[in-house]
Amino acid sequence: MNTYTVKRLLGVLLLLFVSGCCHRDCPVNWRPNALFPVFYGHKDYLTDDGAPGPCRVFYPSLDGAPLNAPVLEGCCKYPLIILVHGHCDEEEHYKKWFLQAAQLARSGFVVVVPQIPSIGTHPSEESHPGLARLSEIRNWVLNTWEHHELVHSFTGIAGHSYGALLGARFAKTDADIKAYASLSGVWENWPSGPLPVMSLNLPTLFIRGNDPFGDFSTGVGHFWNSLPVPKHQAVFQGGFHWDYLPSGATNCEQSVGGRGDCSSTSILSTELLSMFFGKYLRKSNRPYARIPNSLIPPDLTLTSEQQFYAGGGHLTYLKNTNCSLTLSWKTNEGSGTHTFP
């Protein structure tokens, strides 16, 4: 047996050993992930609870009642995702970001949605207090949160509107931030100077509509070709700024003319986010090959137990949508586009 074969065998054995050890006590026979999810739980925290500020934490669970449900233990550490809300002048707006966070938690992530101070102030300001809050929140989840021992330091950032801009700035602060997603980031409103997203050397996803709230030609379309790979983009024709939340969830949707043409943007964006982070935010730096570069969910065969936790309609909305949506991507393996319907 030559040296190469021996090293390869040892590597495989080490991988199996690590893989087996970290989930040997998992109550289900798979690691929760974007393709094979479980249920989720969530819990609210305030400064009186030791958190840096008000926030809601979502996490994998096997309990059918999400509020304060027990966290799923024994299934390896869960990477962290921070969801950064945008500017909306309503009480506890951060709690409106529920659907995407819950599905990401079902997909094997711990997701924290913090209340961001001064989010109405433009995120380009060098001393924006939101940057300190994001750092404090991340450190708290990784080191102090009651289940911090279950959280992996690899982190993803997803942000909406101003939150996308602030999240991009924060994503540059730590090498363990491994993936970034922008939901209608208002890049066209960035003042003079380099966009923070241009220097992100990590996988990126940009989702937006083409509503009159922003000029697409000076937004994502302006810098798309200059971004490093892998990069992904989803454009909803007739999509509006607040379509990521269920209809009527926020009063702010009226500030941009209401809702867009697609009634299922919230669930479609949720599938795209779970596919994106499921592919790239892992405990290794290798993308999950079972999720295609298009981010269109693959066909799956689930066991009866997996189907129980996945529920009806799991990852079927994007493949069957009648909404006008164009996906584009460029990775090391190639590039492509796909238009629905």
Automatic annotation (TrEMBL):
Pfam families: Abhydrolase_6 (PF12697). Residues 1-24 form the signal peptide. InterPro entries: AB_hydrolase_1, AB_hydrolase_fold. Keywords: Signal. SUPFAM superfamilies: alpha/beta-Hydrolases. It comes from the Bacteria. PROSITE patterns: PROKAR_LIPOPROTEIN. Residues 81-202 form the AB hydrolase-1 domain. This is AB hydrolase-1 domain-containing protein.
